[in-house]
Design a protein that fits this description.
The chain is α+β, with helices and mostly antiparallel strands. It folds into two domains: 63 residues, 2,3-Dihydroxybiphenyl 1,2-Dioxygenase, domain 1; 80 residues, 2,3-Dihydroxybiphenyl 1,2-Dioxygenase, domain 1. Strands 5, 6, 7, 8, 9 and 10 form a six-stranded mixed β-sheet that branches. Strands 1-4-3-2 form a four-stranded mixed β-sheet. A hairpin with a 5-residue loop joins strand 9 and strand 10. The mean pLDDT is 93.
């Protein structure tokens, strides 16, 4: 079985957040979802657990930050090409998110943008040239 990652995100409105991620192409896994949490699957190895604030508080004693004002993590996810980077960012805006809270990046071999979900969690969709990655850091430092 491949190693998986489950990103846990506290959300103010579980239904709104579930709809937002569904609009981006995530699918809801009913086996791991209830009135306090929604498991939204991006791929065979990546899932996002949307947790109500009260449920989130049962996992940690640490203070929950307001992602609309503070950044604790930037979630970067690969896309197959530049058009897919733009497409998911545009889908996020159409579903109630915010485009480009971080500066867009275009280095020739790598292209990335960002969007914030309705709670303010920042995602960075990125495309990287497989050829540039194969050639290594020297190629990437001179590209674009």
């Amino acid at each position: 079985m491949p190693q998986m990652i489950f990103v846990n995100l506290p959300v103010a409105d579980l239904q709104r957040s579930t709809a937002f991620y569904a609009a981006l192409g995530f699918t809801r896994d009913a086996r791991c979802s209830n009135e306090q949490a929604a498991c939204m699957v991006l791929s065979d190895t990546i899932s996002v657990m949307l947790l109500t604030h009260d449920f989130w508080a049962t996992f940690t004693d640490r203070r929950r930050v307001d992602p609309a004002r503070e950044a604790q993590v930037l979630l970067c996810v690969s896309r197959p090409d530049r058009a897919a980077v733009d497409a998911i960012t545009e889908a996020a805006v159409a579903a109630g998110g915010t485009a480009d809270p971080c500066p867009a990046q275009d280095h020739g071999f790598m292209y990335g943008r960002s969007f914030a979900d309705p709670d303010g969690h920042i995602w960075e969709p990125v495309w990287m040239s497989a050829e540039a990655i194969e050639k290594g850091p020297a190629e990437m430092s001179h590209a674009g």
